[in-house]
Structures are given as C-alpha cells and as structure tokens.
Design goal:
It comes from Anas platyrhynchos. By secondary structure, this protein is α+β, with helices and mostly antiparallel strands. The protein has 2 domains: 244 residues, 2-Layer Sandwich (BirA Bifunctional Protein, domain 2); 94 residues, CO dehydrogenase flavoprotein, C-terminal domain (Enolase-like, domain 1). 35% of the residues lie in helices and 25% in strands. The strands form 4 sheets. The protein has a 6-stranded mixed sheet, with helices on both faces. Strands 12-14-15-16 form a 4-stranded antiparallel sheet, covered by helices on one side. Strand 8 and strand 9 form a beta hairpin. The N terminus is likely disordered.
C-alpha cells in the first residue's frame, strides 16, 4: 500500500522520538504509539481520519495521544445549539468542532488528555482499552479509586466522571477514543456545556450530564505528561512493543499526504453546523421599547443549519407588516447564524424609510433575533 509505505518512510526521517530506543521500523507489526505536536483540535481530529482511512491495521494496533487548546467537540449526530453556549464560546475564543464519531459533547483544554485506539473492526474492544487506562493509572497511583462502568465511562470514587468514550466503526477499521481529565478548567467546562437557547426541539443525540472531577484534585502531583507516559508504557507492555512515543506534526503532507484537506473540511461551516440534524425553534422574548414591553413569538424550522421556515408574530402597529415579511423572507434559506442574520438585517435596514423610530425598532428586533442563534 503506497500511503502506508510513505507514512512509514517519512516517520523514520522526520519524527522526534520521546524515547531514543526504537524508530518506526520496529513497529511494522504489533503496535505503534503516536503523539501529536499540535494542540489544534481540527489538526488532531484530521489525524484520526487519516489513520482510519489510510493505514493498514491488519497486523498493527495504534495508540494516538493528543491534547487540544480550548475547544468544545460535539458528536457526529449532535446539535451545537442544544449542547453548548455558542455565544460564550465566541467571547472566549473557544473553538467548536464536530468529530466523525458518535457520543456526547466534551470540553477540551490542555488539562485534558485524548486517547485514540485504532484496530481492525474485528479486534475492536473498547472495554479492554478502558481497562488498560485504569491499569496504567493504578500502576502510577495505586490509591486511586477508579473503575470502568457499563456505559464505558471511567469513574473516580464511584461518582465523578474522569473519562468519556466515543467510537467510529468502519467497514474494516475502527477506532475508539476517550478523554481523561487531569487538570482541566472545570468552571469553563461547566459554563460552555450549558446551552442558553430556549425552545429548541430536536431528534439529535443529547449528551448525558455528569459530575466531573480532575485527577489533579485527587493527587496534585499528577501531570498530563505523567499520565500520557503511564498509559503509553502500559500499552507498550500489553502489545509487547518498545516503550517509546513517536511525535508527529499533523500538518506535514510528506508524512500524512492529504491531511490538510481533511483539516480544512473539519473547519467548514457546512461540517460543523450544516451537519446538524433538523430541529425547530419555538420561543418568545420580550422587547423593551421606550416605556412599553412587547411580547414577540418566533417559530423556525432549521435543516442542514439553514432556516427552512420562519414566522415572527408581533403587533402590526409596532412594525409595518411589509417590513416584517421582508425579514422573514430574507431569513428563509439563510444560515441559522448571528453573523449572517446581522448582515441581512443591515442590508434590509438600508432599504427602510429614513425614520429614526422605525430604525430603532428594527435594530431592537434584529438584535433579539440574533440572540436566538
């Protein structure tokens, strides 16, 4: 296989080994441990796709280790408006990514470890992978009270979730990935995984809320690097390979041909938002104008991330019906997105009569509409 050979040769030339003992040549069969040099969520998810699509895993198993700068990662069949606080994420510059596996939404930062176990579909066994993680942690800190649940989570002290699982099963290849909380920012985690959006109805896969805890809270001497090394050592022992970690640059086309196209695709609006299962919004909001309070009812159907149908119910005397109809008409077919809605409203405003009161009402209505997104 040409791509497999290219991957092998380039790793021998360009990758830095965290342990000096053995190179990629020694992992021709059995097992391989790879760690990403990037903290970019799109780059790392692209590596998962690349390995799944291009590597021959018939006689090899691969463990991929990676960490991300702040990001929220949703499952393949999830609704981002239902799962997280997009407005807060924009304010904090926290990225949103949609992975190709199922499962629930997770928050990543540099205090969170990600592990991806690649095998053939026949050898796929996520319970064994999680037991490996538990065994590694207990070898590092025997006093830790941790175990794997029937839901494939790892619990600390039988109540705090420190690891969640998701997977992708291809025709011949499979991967199982899981998180491990070491020292993540739990306050940010809690805030961004709390959706403020009201009136959403969707058949998208919902996340199951859980109490979480960092391993660092249990033992402040633990670091992400210690956990990564312990897991790599246990993996190497179980697969009878040398304990070393091969570092890769997930943007290097000589190592991973076509990788940057995969990364770009994962960053597109069409993938992150456009793959959202169809949902509806039915909600009310109050608008305060001068000394009066106005109740406005909005109903929208959203498909592939775009507004399919829209209705805005407000008193005729407050805003000319023709203007409101023009807004509804413009929204239909547009992205369910505050940036696009703001641009549309600005364009329509320029077509309005030069009336200060009318402009103030229009701006107020459009500001409230964008807050729904």
């Amino acid at each position: 296989m040409v791509l497999q050979s290219s991957f092998k040769n380039c790793l021998q030339l360009s990758c830095i080994l965290r342990t000096p003992k053995a190179g990629f040549r020694d992992a021709a069969s059995g097992g391989l441990i790879i760690q990403s040099l990037s903290n970019d969520v799109y780059h790392n998810l692209a590596v998962e796709d690349w390995i799944h699509d291009h590597m021959n895993l018939e006689n090899r198993q691969v463990l991929f280790l990676w960490r991300n700068s702040p990001a929220v990662v949703i499952g393949r069949h999830q609704n981002p408006w239902q799962e997280c606080n997009l407005k807060l994420m924009r304010q904090k510059n926290i990225k949103l990514a949609r992975r190709r596996s199922g499962g629930g939404t997770v928050y990543h930062d540099l205090g969170n470890i990600n592990l991806t176990f690649f095998t053939t579909r026949k050898k796929y066994e996520r319970m064994e992978n999680l037991k490996l993680v538990v065994k590694a942690l207990k070898a590092l800190r025997p006093q830790l009270n941790i175990h794997v649940t029937d839901r494939y989570d790892i619990l600390l002290d039988r109540q705090y979730k420190i690891s969640g699982t998701a997977a992708k099963l291809g025709r011949t290849t499979a991967y199982h990935h899981c998180t491990l909380l070491c020292n993540a920012d739990k306050f940010v985690l809690s805030d961004v995984l709390k959706s403020p959006y009201k009136g959403l109805k969707s058949n998208a896969t919902p996340s199951v809320p859980a109490s979480v805890k960092n391993l660092f809270e249990e033992d402040p001497s633990l670091t992400c690097e210690m956990l990564l090394d312990a897991i790599a050592e246990e993996y190497a022992m179980q697969h009878q390979i040398d304990h070393h970690i091969t570092l890769i640059n997930p943007t290097d086309e000589t190592v991973l041909p076509g990788i940057n196209n995969k990364s770009k695709e994962l960053q597109t609006w069409e993938w992150i938002y456009g793959k959202t299962p169809k949902f509806s919004v039915s909600t009310c909001f109050n608008m305060v104008y001068k000394d009066s309070v106005l109740d406005v009812k909005v109903d929208m159907d959203v498909k592939h991330g775009r507004i399919e149908a829209c209705n805005i119910d407000l008193p005729e005397q407050w805003l000319p019906p023709a203007l409101c109809s023009e807004l509804v008409k413009s929204l239909s077919g547009s992205k369910f997105c505050p940036t696009e809605t703001t641009a549309l409203s600005s364009t329509l405003l320029r077509m309005c009569p030069q009336d200060d009161e009318l402009h103030s009402k229009w701006n107020l209505l459009c500001e409230n509409m964008t807050m729904l997104m």
